[in-house]
Specification:
By secondary structure, this protein is an alpha/beta fold. Helix content is 47%, strand content 14%. It contains 10 helices and 10 strands. The chain has helices at 3-33, 42-48, 77-86, 97-101, 105-113, 133-151, 167-176, 195-205, 221-234, 242-246; strands spanning 39-40, 64-70, 92-95, 117-120, 157-158, 179-181, 185-186, 210-215, 238-240, 256-257. Strand 2 (64-70), helix 3 and strand 3 form a beta-alpha-beta unit. Helix 3 (77-86) runs parallel beside helix 9, helix 6 (133-151) runs parallel beside helix 7 and helix 8 runs parallel beside helix 9. The termini are far apart. 39% of the residues are buried.
Length: 259
């Protein structure tokens, strides 16, 4: 083989080897830095549980979807509560502290009095994975204390802001008796006031055992809810809370539930 060919081949092999080594190094760094956490789906949680289900809906048999609202209570929440009451439905409200619980305690009390499920959505809506352990714990405990003071009940569910969690957050939640709840359906209602678009996005994404994420504080959301409810019922869905979706399983502190 000519010398020039051997030199080119050697250089090519060196370049390939260097690229492979770099890719392996990057993969190793990612593997070491990506944080994992324990998670399960509502269906998997139910399948592992035994016992009876309280209430009229058993999601082991019924085609269920959980309806959840983040970021309230807000001035728009009473209208939403009127809609849910008219349809004899209950939802899960992941409520926020500053500007919400602190500002509208009577609305939070109404949410509780009308039988809805209340979860923790932190005090300042800080991304828990981005702050230190003590600050993350305060985000949750302050909200827990405020909810309990107003409603008499301490939540057992939380939703991490932006859905971002890790083992640090899971350990804090475990200590505080909080299960973590993510979602499978988002209308991105924070970026549009178009109620028809919000409705379409929800219906396009909804499947059995899903968890719908909406925000009752945004202008286009509450007007979309009647149409969402009507369409889901026409498609055979039973609309439930997160705990109803999991039953007979009980939410486990620290565990992440995601469809």
């Amino acid at each position: 083989m000519p010398l020039k060919v051997r030199i080119r081949r050697s250089r090519l092999l060196i370049a390939v080897a260097t690229a492979v080594a770099a890719a392996v190094a990057v993969a190793l760094i990612v593997a070491l830095t990506v944080t994992t956490y324990d998670h399960t789906s509502p269906r998997a949680a139910r399948d592992k549980a035994s016992g009876s289900v309280a209430g009229s809906v058993d999601c082991r048999k019924a085609k269920c979807v959980a309806l959840t609202f983040d970021g309230g209570p807000s001035p728009t929440t009473p209208k939403l509560l009127d809609i849910l009451k008219q349809d004899d439905l209950h939802a899960t409200f992941f409520v926020q502290g500053k500007g919400h619980i602190a500002k509208y305690p009577k609305i939070l009390r109404r949410i509780s009095d009308e039988g809805h499920e209340i979860g923790n959505h932190t005090w300042y809506h800080e991304v828990l994975t981005d702050i230190d352990v003590d600050d993350a714990r305060r985000e949750l405990t302050r909200t827990q204390d405020a909810i309990e003071k107003i409603t008499g009940t301490r939540p057992i569910l939380m939703r991490p802001p932006e859905g971002r969690t890790n083992r640090k957050v899971a350990k804090i939640c475990q200590d505080l008796g909080l299960a973590q709840v993510l979602w499978s359906v988002t209308a991105k209602d924070y970026e549009t006031t178009d109620s028809a678009l919000i409705t379409k996005r929800v219906l396009d994404q909804t499947h059995r055992d899903g968890i719908i994420l909406l925000h009752d504080l945004h202008k286009g959301t509450v007007p979309a809810v009647p149409g969402i409810i009507k369409a889901l019922k026409q498609r055979g869905y039973s609309i439930v809370t997160v705990s109803q979706l999991l039953a007979p399983a009980k939410p486990q502190p620290g565990m992440v539930y995601r469809p």
